[in-house]
Amino acid sequence: MENTTPAEATAQPAEATAQPALSNEDLQELDELLDSLRERSEEVPQWEFCDGFLTAVVCTRRPISVGEWLPMLLGDGEDLQVPDGQPLPQLEVFASAEQQARFLELAQRRIDEIRVQLDTEVKSLADDEAFQPEVLDTRGAILVLPEAERAEIEDEEVPSFAQVWALGFMFVVENWAEEWAAPRDKEAAQWLDAAMEFIVNLTEDDTDEPALNLYEETGPVSTSQERVDAFGEAVWAVYDLRQLWRSMGPRVTAVVKGDEPGRNDPCSCGSGKKFKKCCGA
């Protein structure tokens, strides 16, 4: 892929340089927190899925509030109707309000980081300011385990590199489908389709010849070069999606007015006066 993309051509430099929002200790805490939630609900996803989900939330055409995305990610999907300035109710999956608040704090830091990274112009994905998805080479990690430990999980289905992240991203696209619908502008619609194809490709299994181990450089090969290239294409596609929806703004909903009474008809407000002498004056 060439280094120049539509996203690079339209992105504006951010006011601040992106800094790592989550330390290794924070990421370990998130893994442990999600593990504890999984004891209460087996449907709680891994952090890699969450990271793809949060990335798509940042890229969605209109802003998605925490009251919308949190229950979709970790609850029953029903919006939390909360007045402005009021705290969110505690989801059942959390053991305490403090645990929920801590998850939201860490998640919001990641959201802010993703937004800064995607709004910063970069020439290469190797740039320090470039967007860096939280993805795993799970197959590579398993291959470096002792043989006895590998045997315990050999019958389990193991996802490909970045597959879980892409599934998290597409979960948002599917559940806010109206906000991801193709725009009327033909060129913009083609841009959207092309970008989405790169991410959808990552949801599929890596069936090409393994050539690399991304977990441990000298470990047994687990991931194909084609998969690594596809991942790079998908990262650039995320830049494109962010810039596409930013350039278009939220979808405008047309307001349909009902039929107004004639000037000599009784006013619809029930006053008993003619429309022209009342609300139509």
Which features characterize this protein?
281 residues; mainly alpha; Zinc chelation protein SecC; YgfB-like
Overall description:
A two-stranded antiparallel sheet has the order 1-2. By secondary structure, the protein is mainly alpha-helical. It starts with 5 loop residues before the first helix and ends in a 33-residue tail after the last helix. The radius of gyration is 24 Å and the shape is globular. The longest helix has 24 residues, at 225-248. It has helices at residues 6-10, 24-38, 47-59, 66-74, 97-118, 138-143, 147-153, 163-175, 186-202, 225-248; strands at 210-212, 223-224. It has one domain. It comes from Comamonas terrigena. It holds the Pfam family UPF0149.
The amount of helix comes to 40-55%
Which structural class should the secondary elements be placed in?
Answer: mainly alpha
Number of domains: 1
User: Which strand-content bin applies to the residues?
Assistant: under 5%
- Elements, N to C (H/E): HHHHHHHHHEEH
What radius of gyration results from the CA coordinates?
Answer: 24 Å
DSSP strand count: 2
The chain-level mean pLDDT equals 86
Low-confidence stretches: 1-18, 254-258
How are the strands ordered across the major sheet?
A: 1-2
What's the overall geometry?
Answer: globular
- Enumerate how many helices there are, as a single number: 10
Biggest beta sheet summary: 2 strands, antiparallel
- What's the end-to-end separation, in Å? 64 Å
Short description:
InterPro entries: SEC_C_motif (IPR004027), YgfB-like (IPR011978), YgfB-like_sf (IPR036255). With 281 residues, the chain is mainly alpha-helical.
